[in-house]
User: What shape does this take?
Amino acid sequence: MKACYMTCLTDINCRTISFDQFNNQCELFADIPSQYGSLTAQAGVTSFIAVNRQLSARKQRLDASITTSSTTSTTTATTATVTTTVTTTPSSISSTTSSSSSSSTTTSTTTIIMAWKTAANMNGGRDTYAGSILTNGKVLVTGGSNNGYVIGTELYDPSTNNWTTTANLNTARWRHSASILSNGKVLVTGGQASSGYLNSAELYDPSTSTWTTTANMNVARSQHTTFILLNGSVLVAGGQGTSGTYLNSAELYNPSTSIWTTTGNMNVARSQHTASILSNGKILVTGGQGTGGTYLNSAELYDPSTNIWTTTGSMTNARYYHTASILSNGKVLVSGGQGTGGAYLNSAALYDSSTNTWTTTGNMNVARYAHTASILSNGKVLVTGGFRDSSFVLNSAELYDPSTSTWTTTVNMTVTRRSHSAFILSNGKILVAGGNDGSATVNSAELYG
Assistant: This one.
């Protein structure tokens, strides 16, 4: 193959290998007289349709190490066997096709470096914003910062790769949160604005593309966490409040009554922490920054049936601005962040809810905080960007494999970014959008997968 760019589509069966034609010289496996498959050209893209190519669930995506083969024999005057092997790694694809008969053997090998695909730019740049995936598959991004507090919101449509503006928030805000309710509406809570810390909340209705205010929280807060409980209520916990006070308070929003009620306080006041819902319905919060700016290694559990928080061991490293991901085995992977003494962390830890214990796991290749973490359909975790130190913003990405407890680097993003967001689309791709490149807020977006 020459003058082509190859990717394997990110579905479980991975039956199609697409080749982007940079010019009309794009050829697939040049000089091979017998290839089992078909070529079709459409809008500058050529696709080779593989036959009987099934991938195991463990090897189903580009970010895995995949080797597949398909063999067919045809009885003619001579017997010919054609074998196609495609091998992918996080950064490259090697494709070898051989054709053998009684008289000759020809082999062609091509290696293509994989890359992130740029998506359409947002209409405006933003960092430290909140976003949600709507029930229709579109992505809603709200507020944030861009040389001031952002009031605008917009929608990304994966089917058209377009961003469109939608109605403005009632209040410009950043360091807020956004949650999808069971009725499909989006609840935005708290954050900061020119007036200070906010206790206001508002609802976005996708059916009318409008924002309406709802009841205020009992406590103004930013850099808090929100999570949807199994009963549909929204749990808001911690953050920073008036005068920058670190909060241990928590409250519940009832979507059916639009009423906020206080619930049990956390044992430790914390901000910039993480929250994860476990298979038993409890909420795990980890780390963060506490009173006096102390970095925290503590963790605690909220039980919705009792409204009580209980401590549950401590991580080896104190950290904030880290990420937490629920793995397919039920464990929680915590990675990166900033720790004691302002150290930037590459360490990671696992929480096992069945034993309520923490264990260390493999370190990331690069220390980072203010990054993102996303679960891929093959169970691996993709982390992107963030700060490496106080002045260096990353475009690197890497993958955590729960089966080996190891991290491997994957292709760099096209743009350095921190304080961005990542969204898992219905097609399995990861959309990364916005953030700050170290000198300015960006409006760029890109797709992985």
Notes: The radius of gyration is 24 Å. The first strand starts at residue 4 and ends at 8. Residues 1-104, 109-114 have pLDDT under 50 and may be disordered. The chain has two domains: 4-113, 117-448.
